[in-house]
Amino acid sequence: MDRLLLTAQVVLGALGILGVAAAAPDLAGEHALRVAAALVVSVAVAYVPVARVVRASPWLYAGTLALLVAVLFIGVAPAGSDAKRWLLVGGVSVQPSELMKVAVIAYLAAFFWNHLGDWQIWRPMLVVGVAAGAIIAQPDVSTALFTFALAFAVMLAAGTTMTRLLSITTAAALVAIVIGGPYLSQFSYLAERITGFQDLWGAQEATRSTSYQAFRAREALQAGGWIGIGPGGILRVPEAETDMIAVALGRTLGLVGMATLIATYLLIASRGLRIAAAQAGPGALLAAGATAYVTGQAALNLLVASGLLPVTGIPLPFVSYGLNSLVSVAIAFGFLHAAHREAVRAGALRGTGDGEAP
User: Fold this and answer.
1) What's the pLDDT band for 154 if we cut at 50, 70, 90?
2) What is the three-class DSSP state of 89?
3) Residues in contact with 325: Cβ distance below 8 Å, sequence separation at least 6, in sequence order
4) 80: buried, middle or exposed (CB in 10 Å: 19+, 13-18, 0-12)?
5) How many domains does the chain have?
6) Cα dihedral 207, 212, 218, 221 sign
7) What is the largest CA-CA distance in the chain?
């Protein structure tokens, strides 16, 4: 296990518990238990050899895709929402689109390493396009676009030429549109999010409707000031314990807390890229994809929380309340730890002195 990464995970988990306690105190205990369980998941994945992850990746992808298809037929939606993104399994809500992020990373890491440049574009095109199309059909355009971004990151790390990269991306986008496009006309939330973003930076005439969440989020961040106002009080921001948990932290801990949060993600980015660059092999591609997942999603979430992007519904990695996101990000951290262990064994990174836990 990499001590620096593990420390970063613990810091994020602690900030998440504090944020949930500030936004929804009755959920803080449950979230703390979930964070502890997610750390256990990371440790378990970290001790799975990279070669075994590579061999299992097609089955992980196929199984997750089957769950995504099942969502279209027997999926459930929370009260007040028309989007079916969850499956009820033994009383637990499972969101396959979160698991698909790590499934795509693992599959593409295995594919590009196994074929070493001798391949046709149709396989990665279908893998990415079908997965994104099934996610769009839920509908969840933000997660589908982010899945594209993760695939792009893995392909870049694999040294894919720009011609092939653009060919795969374009073809996969067409596949995704064919599969998911017909479902989008049934939902109006996409247009409302764009309208709300425009109103936030415009006339602010819809602060009680389409721009309400973003407007309240900006107010809460401004109230936090430099050192925050501490826990307690009413936080009138919808989804403040999930997608907008950065706002809860900003209000509670102020600019100092937000700087700590951002610095932690920057540490993860630096460490993850170093692990990816330390060796050649599928572990490097897993590390690159996992780093893009954790830090890229964090950047998107923080930009939304600050009002610089329209609301996306994407959670803050290893911080937001939500079991599915925690497990998915925990697996991504496990990929990073596993790649680090492989690099240490190969002599590409130092042992305990370079962050390897005994």
Assistant:
1) very high
2) strand
3) 95, 98, 315, 317
4) exposed
5) 1
6) positive
7) 60
Q: What is 212-256 written as a DSSP string?
A: HHHHHHHHHHHHHTTT---S-S----TTTTTTTHHHHHHHHHHHH
d(CA 7, CA 37): 16
- Do residues 59 and 350 lie in contact, with contact meaning Cβ atoms separated by under 8 Å? no
Asked if 289 contacts 108 with a C-beta cutoff of 8 angstroms, the reply is yes
Rounded-to-integer distance, Cα 288 and Cα 153, Å:
7
Q: What pLDDT score was predicted for residue 189?
A: 66
One-letter amino acid at 155 equals M
Residue 187 has what pLDDT? 66
Q: Which domain holds residue 113?
A: 3-354
Q: Which amino acid is at 176?
A: A
Of the CA atoms within 13 Å of residue 240, those in its CB half-sphere come to: 30
User: Per-residue pLDDT for 325 more than 90?
Assistant: yes
Over the range 117-145, which residues count as b (16 or more CB within 10 Å of their CB) and which as e? Answer: eeeebeebbebbbbbbbbbbbbbbbbbbb
